[in-house]
Amino acid sequence: MVVILIYSMFFLFSFATAYDQCVQSKAVVFSSAFALSSGACGYGSLALKLSGGHVTAGVPSLYKDGAGCGACFQIKCKNSAICNKEGTKLIMSDVNKSNSITDFVLNSRAFKAMALLGKGLQVLKLGIVDVE
Questions:
Q1: pTM beyond 0.90, yes or no
Q2: Max CA pair span of the chain
């Protein structure tokens, strides 16, 4: 009984610790929301109604041959001078095969949603940001 209790506590602690860890990456803005919404997942204009129109293309390891379509991600920009702490929630609607420096290609609406109030244009001008 004690052994089961110890294993249970270890499992719960491991799970809680792993859940709090963030993955570091980069996100880039793609100016055409239409291109992302009409992407490989085939959502069409419906994609712009999902998650407030915040859509992303992901690298093949996230896209997973289509299994990643519709996956929800929450990312936040790490630049605290212009980015909010909440970040934005995204729906994967396309695969990104051409950009090797970033995991996420966001439409401009999603990219600006990471910004502090009034700083949306500054974030857009950066074009690429570190995210977690």
A1: no
A2: 60
